Each structure stands twice: as structure tokens, then as C-alpha cells.
Amino acid sequence: MFEMTALRTAKTLYALTIGVGVIWLAWLCLTNLPVWAAVLMFCLGLPLLALAAAPIAAGGALLAGVVVGLVAVISHSSARRVRYDD
């Protein structure tokens, strides 16, 4: 349960973080530059952004996934068990 919850949370947060970074870079390029310069800067800036942001995003997603996994395990173990009387 811990591994599944932590992995799903980490993957989701990582994808959201990288997606927001790409959208931010595209918005920054398109609002401040002409189209040809925006395309050129986006193509040059995206690999640099990925090199800088990917380790930070992965570390943050890992920490958040572990915290969510621990919360899920603790809440699951502290929940009352349902007893069935036949």
C-alpha cells in the first residue's frame, strides 16, 4: 500500500511540475518575444529548463510521495476494522 501510494503521488506531482514549467516557459517566450524568437528561445531554453528543474522536481515529488505514503499507512492502520457477525 505504501509503495503504490507513494509512487502514484510522486509520478503525478512530477508530471504536474514539469508540465507547469513547460507551460510557464512557453508563456514567457510568447508574451515577451516575437514569434520567431519565441520559437528559437523555447527550443534552446527547454533543454536547459529540463536539466535544471528535473532533479529538483524529482526530489520534491519523492519527498511528497513518501509523506503521502506514510500518511496513508498510518491512517489505514488506525482506522477501525469492520466486524461482520454472521
List the helices and strands and how they pair.
Layout: H1 2-32, H2 35-78
Helix pairs in contact: 1-2
Mind explaining what this structure looks like?
The chain has 86 residues and is mainly alpha-helical. The protein is built from two helices and no strands. It has helices at 2-32, 35-78. The mean pLDDT is 85.
E-strand count:
0
Helix content, binned percent: over 70%
Estimated share of beta-strand residues = under 5%
Shape: rod-shaped
What is the radius of gyration computed over CA atoms, rounded to a whole number of angstroms?
Answer: 20 Å
Largest sheet: none
| Broad structural category | mainly alpha
Order of SSEs: HH
Which regions contain 5 or more consecutive residues with pLDDT less than 50? none
What's the number of helices? 2
How confident is the prediction overall: mean pLDDT?
85
The span between the termini is: 29 Å
Task: Describe this structure in a few short sentences.
With 86 residues, the protein is mainly α. The protein is built from two helices and no strands.
Notable traits:
2 helices
